[in-house]
Amino acid sequence: MEGSAAPARLGVHIVSRRMVRPSPSASSETSSEPETVHLTPWDLQMLTVDYIQKGVLLPRPPAGVDVVERLASSFARALARFYPFAGRLVAEEHGGDGTVTVSLRCTGEGAEFVHAVAAPGVTAADVASSLYIPRVVWSFFPLDGMVGADAATGSRPVLDAQVTELADGVFVAMSLNHGVADGTTFWHLFNTWSEISRGDAASGDAGKISTPVPVLEPWFPDACPTPVPLPFAKLEHVVRRFNGPALEECFFSFSGETIKNLKARANAEMAGTATATISSLQSLLAHVWRAVSRARHLPEEHETSYTVLVGCRGRVARVPHAYAGNAVVRCTAKATAGEVLEKGLGWTAWLLNRAVASQDEAALLESVASWHRTPRFAYLAGWWHSAVVVTGNSPRFDVYGNDFGWGRPMAVRSGGANKVDGRATVYEGRDGGGGMGMELALAPDVLARLVADEEFMGTITMAVSTGGG
Prior knowledge:
Helices cover 25% and strands 23% of the residues. It has twelve helices and 15 strands. The protein has helices spanning 41-44, 67-81, 124-128, 150-153, 183-198, 256-269, 280-296, 337-342, 344-357, 361-370, 444-451, 454-457, and strands spanning 12-20, 35-38, 52-59, 88-94, 99-106, 111-118, 159-166, 169-176, 248-254, 303-311, 328-336, 388-392, 411-414, 423-428, 436-442. Helix 7 crosses helix 9.
């Protein structure tokens, strides 16, 4: 049932809001008591950051397609597979010892579904074909400004979807609490939703789709208490709000040939020194790190760092590929600006390679097993500085396969969540062939210098197609 209209946000008018509940096949509805999913250390460390916000721009659906109802119906069936995300986070305070525990209660209350219309004149080309990303894109995402812990303290949904109609397209977005899921799980759910929508919207069976069934049981290391007590009297005490400086964003596309050349160059420069192959992604990130360091005009002796998220699936044997929770850690490479600029692409890429390689199974198990004794949270406040670069998402995620039934995506974009000066969000390339795309947020003056950097811009594919084929 359609909810009431809401006030407009910048660039969009909210037509309606509703709670979408998982279909009756959700196993949580077969029990008289709601199932409780305790958050793991990997989950808990992410309660302090913003929701994950990603979405795709789709072509205009053909005449006669009720896009909003079709997407709401398929979203409900996708939610049946991921039914814990229709629940609510609950913080339980333990006055006796001054700790608090956090769990996901599978109440089936639902995920919010928002229908919005962009301001007149906002077109697909504004989103997909502009080098600079217009700020209106942030309005395509719900739950902006919320960190994971807010869902427990305010009894808010852990998952929201928003469908925004443009003059000649549709933007489909999700916001998912980072305290219950990572990027792998986000795109697993998004892929499930699009595959269900591609099928017969009236009679399709979510149980017959090819997207793997998620593994919903949380994984805890041996000897870790369940639930994990946090050393705070109230969950609000774990939160540190962050208000960063002004920034602007560009979307850069790198062709498969460019990525191949960067990788070959990086490995050639480290021939005889490197003991492992530098990857395509590490080569690209090193290229970006060096270009951003140039654009920032950092003194040679100034320390700069690059933080990347490393997935634990495939590294920790007991964590399955379809695990539906958080299974990521952060690792950081550090060097002076002079070293990054003078020692070359290969040397810089090797720094990133070694940082990632340090996160082997033994290191990951040791870190997660001891987390409950000295909890460490992901913060922007107190962590961010003007010489940092940080990358999230992955080119391995299936973004452009998210055809909801009337054409593959024309573009992918993220919202304002977790955006700081130096945030680089990486995606697969739209045209395949090993290409990659990247959203890069920087201080306005730094980004202007980067766009004027002929060496960097010479590696960018400028043309961005908005065709739906």
